[in-house]
Specification:
The protein has 204 residues and is an all-alpha fold. It has nine helices and no strands.
Length: 204
């Protein structure tokens, strides 16, 4: 943090255990947002978190593992899977949440990490896979209840539903560089719902 004279100084030590972890992961995401992955250093992360860099290295062997943890931690907290007893509303809410996140400075920073050399680092790639696997698990009870209510056909695959919602949004962000908005989210959710109701997203 900055003192009254405008000089950057280490913040107050956050304590041990979970508090240290939370402070360091938060500092990592802040550094990614401000500087990008290429300029990311453990020293700057430690300074922002208010801890010594040796404290960081005791928990993470290098910045790759640190970024992987931060990205994994982020996924479960920023875009949770909705559950409102209305699958159409749930899918729209999921898509809108993703659009808001990807359009935010932090979302753009994380996207840049995935598109950079860091995205090919095994730890970071593994973190990405865990992000989506967790999302699929969150979708399972929501889709099961939608099937029980008669909103979706039996055998609908929760993972395929999630993929169908997210894919058009990520296509615009990562491939075609088109703008995304709430209408983008709603169109993706509606298309996924139509495909699911037609039986196109069922398990083999």
């Amino acid at each position: 943090m900055k003192s009254d004279d405008g000089v950057e100084r280490p913040g107050k030590p956050p304590g041990r255990g979970p508090k240290v972890r939370a402070a360091v992961l938060s500092a990592t995401l802040s550094e990614l947002t401000q500087t990008g992955y290429a300029a990311l250093t453990v020293e700057n992360i430690a300074r922002r978190a208010g801890v010594h860099k040796t404290t960081v290295y005791r928990r993470w062997s290098d910045r790759e593992n640190l970024v992987a943890d931060a990205v994994t931690e982020l996924a479960g907290t920023r875009v949770p899977f909705p559950d409102s007893d209305d699958i159409s509303a749930d899918l729209r809410s999921l898509a809108r949440s993703l659009v808001r996140f990807l359009a935010s400075p932090l979302g753009q920073a994380v996207t840049a990490v995935m598109l950079s050399d860091a995205g090919r680092i095994p730890e970071v790639a593994s973190a990405q896979r865990r992000r989506f696997e967790d999302r699929y698990r969150q979708a399972e009870p929501v889709v099961a209840r939608a099937i029980a209510r008669g909103e979706l056909p039996p055998g609908t695959d929760p993972a395929e539903v999630v993929r169908a919602v997210l894919a058009p949004i990520y296509l615009r962000v990562l491939v075609t560089s088109e703008p995304i908005s709430q209408s983008t989210a709603d169109a993706a959710a509606d298309a996924a719902l139509a495909a699911a109701r037609a039986g196109a997203l069922s398990r083999p």
